Amino acid sequence: YQRRVHGDALGVEQVVTILKRRVQKNQVESMQVVGEVVGQTCIIVDDMIDTAGTLVKAADLLGAKGARRVIACATHGILTDPACARINACGPLEQVVTTDSIPQQAHLEACTKLHVLTLAPL
C-alpha cells in the first residue's frame, strides 16, 4: 500500500522496494528486489549515505536485475571513507545527489558522480 501512495505522490507508474537484512550496523547480509526493474530508471532514496556500502550493493543489484539507469539521492551525504571510492567504482550507479547539510567541497573533488543541492533557499 505504501509503495502505491508514494508512487501516486511522485506521479510514477511503479515503485520498487529493496528489502535488506542487516547482521549488524553498516553490514547488510542480503538484499532482495520487490518489483520489476528491467529497462527502468531506478532512483534510490535514503536519508543518508555514510560509507556507501549499502548504496553500492543496492545499485549493483538493480543493475544485475536489468535496470537501465540507477541514480541515488539522500538528504545527508556523510560520505565517510571509502564512500567516494565505492561510488566512483560502481558501474550501474550513474549519479548521487545529496544536499549541503554537511559541507561537500572535499567530497565533490573526490567523487565524480556527486551532485550537491543547496539548502540555503529553504
* H/E element order: HEEEHEHEHE
The overall pLDDT average reads 92
Count of alpha and pi helical runs: 4
Quaternary assembly: single chain
Q: What is the topology, as strand order, of the major beta sheet?
A: 3-4-5-6
Fraction of residues in β-strands:
35-45%
CA-based shape: globular
Distance between the termini: 31 Å
Q: Uncertain segments of ≥5 residues (pLDDT<50)?
A: none
What percentage of residues falls in helices of 4 or more residues? 25-40%
Helix/strand class: alpha/beta
Computed over alpha carbons, the radius of gyration is 14 Å
Q: Count the strands?
A: 6
Describe the biggest sheet?
4 strands, parallel
Written overview of the protein:
The chain is of the alpha/beta class and 122 residues long. Helix content is 28%, strand content 37%. It is built from 4 helices and 6 strands. It has helices at residues 2-10, 53-64, 83-89, 105-110; strands spanning 17-24, 27-34, 41-49, 69-77, 93-99, 114-117. The strands form 2 sheets. Strands 3-4-5-6 form a 4-stranded parallel beta sheet. Strand 4 (69-77), helix 3 and strand 5 (93-99) form a beta-alpha-beta unit. The longest helix is centred in the middle third of the chain and has 12 residues, at 53-64. The model has no long low-confidence stretch (mean pLDDT 92).
